[in-house]
């Protein structure tokens, strides 16, 4: 027996047990996702769980055990959001088209209105620790049929059902509560359903009445809906995503439908949309290019000056110049927003005292864009200052000594020695900085919020908006909240940034080969 126990592979048995528990938990998760109406997500979850079990159970996939978590993380947090965003870009998903057609249809069919003709008056009567609810027809004559419930607690707003029965003529009841006392139980009464002897269910219909509810809509075999009070029929329109009547009247809410490349075509074909979109795209490129060029110019110039050995207090200067990089960006942006205030800002105070002018930094499009570039240069130059300082330390001093013997000037040294030697290692970082500024949402949001706005546009768009802030306004700030259009623009931004990243990798690879 001891030999048998010694030969039993406990490690393998525990592993098999853990795998079985994970498999059962995974199947439960897959079924839960499917039951929530997401079959494609359920299929994806099943594939990931099956792949994970295979990788960690099979000996053939031993090499994948260390890579699998990273692959899963990339699929869940990179690939899935990207694919989902691209899919939304091919739909009309918006604040008016949030639900599927099935859910919109179910929502409309669930709508009811009180049936006032068959409503009954109710009263509440104390009975021990509870209250009895009594129903009677309005203006009931002596001997009219009344109904009574068992004693009810009527606390809170938890939904419950009370069974009503015929009130015997000889049953004595305590005096009814006053209207004020009835209103104290209003929340509980609103959640209460009354089951009548004739199988009807009555709901709270007012301060003094309960009544049955009548359906608003009737479903037709052709998937259309007819409103019962006027027999007006609304048919689903899968092009626009609405239930639409013959006279063009639409029902709210709409539902999601596939629109193909309509959102992308709108960027090019709709003149009222294309105008601000093209302007914002051009400004995004110009803003990113100017920010990088000026930040690089200022940072590199300061790095060269601070590399001068004869300069006293170089460490102090370097520390002071590095401060903008140490202060959180959002704080610096808000400080500059106060400095550029037209009426109370220090910058306009100085300009008014010296030149007698007070520029409208936030109202004039050109001045607002200039302000953005200035602030972004202040935030970005320390990054290039640090980079260039490190690269300058790697340049052999012998080159400058030989240049000095030849009588070269400082500018000649910079353009003939310094710039050619630092431009290659800086190239990928410059491209990365351009990609960062291409999506610099924080600066736009905190400094100008995209304003001043363009005039006479279908969708609010600002002259200082860049593509990412424009997309945010479309998705979350526009009254229509057009998520489909925002997703299409986000997809375009993704491919633009992907091209920049590809260029970055190519430049880095070419520099590595030449190095």
Automatic annotation (TrEMBL):
The chain crosses the membrane at residues 12-33, 39-57, 66-90, 280-308, 320-340, 381-400, 421-447, 483-505. Signal peptide: none annotated. InterPro entries: MalF_N, MalF_P2, MalF_P2_sf, MetI-like, MetI-like_sf. Pfam families: BPD_transp_1 (PF00528), MalF_P2 (PF14785). Its main location: membrane. GO terms for molecular function: ABC-type maltose transporter activity. Belongs to the binding-protein-dependent transport system permease family. MalFG subfamily. This is Maltose/maltodextrin transport system permease protein. The gene is malF.
């Amino acid at each position: 027996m001891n030999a048998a126990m010694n030969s039993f592979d406990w490690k393998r048995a525990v592993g098999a047990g853990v795998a079985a528990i994970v498999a059962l938990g995974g199947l439960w998760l897959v079924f839960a996702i499917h039951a929530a109406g997401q079959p494609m997500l359920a299929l994806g979850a099943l594939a990931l769980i099956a792949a994970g079990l295979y990788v960690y159970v099979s000996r053939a996939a031993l090499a994948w055990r260390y890579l699998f978590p990273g692959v899963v993380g990339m699929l869940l947090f990179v690939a899935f959001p990207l694919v989902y965003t691209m899919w939304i870009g091919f739909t009309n998903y918006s604040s008016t088209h949030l639900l599927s057609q099935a859910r919109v249809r179910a929502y409309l069919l669930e709508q009811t209105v009180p049936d006032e003709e068959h409503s009954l008056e109710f009263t509440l009567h104390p009975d021990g620790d509870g209250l009895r609810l009594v129903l009677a027809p309005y203006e009931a004559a002596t001997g009219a049929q009344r109904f009574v419930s068992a004693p009810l607690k009527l606390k809170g707003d938890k939904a419950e059902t009370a069974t009503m029965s015929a009130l015997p003529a000889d049953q004595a009841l305590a005096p009814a509560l006053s209207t004020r006392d009835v209103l104290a139980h209003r929340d509980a009464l609103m959640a209460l359903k009354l089951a009548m002897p004739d199988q009807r269910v009555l709901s709270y219909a007012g301060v003094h009445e309960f009544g049955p509810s009548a359906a608003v809509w009737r479903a037709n075999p052709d998937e259309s809906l007819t409103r019962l009070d006027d027999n007006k029929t609304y048919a689903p329109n899968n092009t626009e995503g609405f239930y639409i009547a013959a006279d063009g009247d639409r029902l709210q809410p709409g539902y999601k439908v596939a629109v193909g490349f309509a959102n992308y075509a709108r960027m090019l074909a709709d003149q009222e949309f294309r105008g601000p979109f093209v302007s914002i795209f051009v400004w995004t490129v110009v803003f990113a290019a100017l920010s990088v060029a000026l930040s690089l110019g200022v940072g590199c110039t300061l790095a060269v000056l601070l590399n001068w050995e004869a300069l006293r207090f170089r460490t102090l200067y370097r520390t002071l110049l590095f401060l903008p990089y140490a202060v959180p960006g959002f704080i610096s942006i808000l400080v500059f927003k106060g400095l550029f205030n037209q009426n109370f800002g220090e910058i306009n105070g100085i300009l008014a005292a010296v030149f007698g002018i007070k520029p409208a930094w936030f109202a004039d499009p050109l001045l607002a864009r200039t302000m953005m570039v200035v602030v972004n240069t202040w935030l970005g130059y320390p990054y290039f200052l640090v980079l260039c300082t490190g690269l300058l330390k790697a340049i052999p001093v012998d080159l400058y000594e030989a240049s000095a013997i030849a009588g070269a000037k400082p500018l000649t040294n910079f353009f003939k020695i310094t710039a050619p030697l630092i431009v290659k290692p800086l190239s990928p970082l410059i491209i990365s900085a351009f990609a960062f500024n291409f999506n610099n949402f924080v600066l736009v949001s905190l400094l100008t919020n995209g304003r001043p706005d363009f005039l006479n546009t279908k969708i609010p768009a600002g002259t200082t908006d860049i593509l990412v802030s424009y997309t945010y306004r479309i998705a979350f700030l526009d009254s229509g909240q057009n998520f489909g259009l925002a997703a299409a623009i986000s997809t375009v931004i993704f491919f633009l940034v992907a091209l920049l990243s590809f260029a970055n990798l190519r430049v880095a690879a070419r520099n590595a080969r030449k190095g």
